[in-house]
Amino acid sequence: MLFRNDGADANSVDVIAIPQPSHSWLSGQLVRAWGNETFARPSPYEEVCLGAALHDIGWLSWEVAPTLNHETGRPHNFLEMKPAVHTELWTDGVNRALAFGRYPALLVSLHAKTIYTSFFNFEKAPPDDARLVRSFLEKQEEFQRAAIKALAVDPLLAADVTPQAVERNRHLVAATDRMSLEICWGITGEVRIPGVPTTGTDVTELHIRSPHGDPADLVITPWPFATDHVQVFCEGRRLHGRFTDEDTLRQALRDAERAAIRAVFRRA
Question: Which one of 3, 107, 117, 147 is CB 3.0 to 4.6 Å from 15, fit for a cystine?
Answer without folding.
Answer: 3
